[in-house]
Amino acid sequence: MQTRKTIIAAALVWMAGLLGIILFQDVFAGSLLGAVLGILMVIVTLAATYFMVDGMLMLKQQSEEQQD
Fold first, then answer.
1. CA 12 to chain CA mean position, Å
2. CA dist., res. 62 & res. 15, Å (int)
3. pLDDT tens by residue, 14-67
């Protein structure tokens, strides 16, 4: 159950990260602050994507082990 909560949280962070990247590019397009915040949001989004994919693969592996 804890793994599924982690996957859901990672998915929410991923979606928020994408929306944040769009917001920062629109609002702060010409400033250094916008570039820095955009890069930070990309890093957070990539980390959340990793945790989300890793969690899904772990759930798939657990279900395959239970079937055997």
1. 7
2. 26
3. 888 788 777 777 777 777 877 787 788 888 888 888 888 888 888 888 888 888
Identify residue 53 by its one-letter amino acid code: V
Residues 6+ apart with CB under 8 A from 52: 7, 10, 11, 14
Among 9, 15, 14, 38, smallest CA distance to 26 is for: 38
Look up residue 32 and give its two tokens. Answer: 């250094």
Of the candidates 13, 8, 3, 23, the residue with the CA atom closest to the CA atom of residue 43? 13
- How far is 39 from 51, CA to CA, in rounded Å? 19
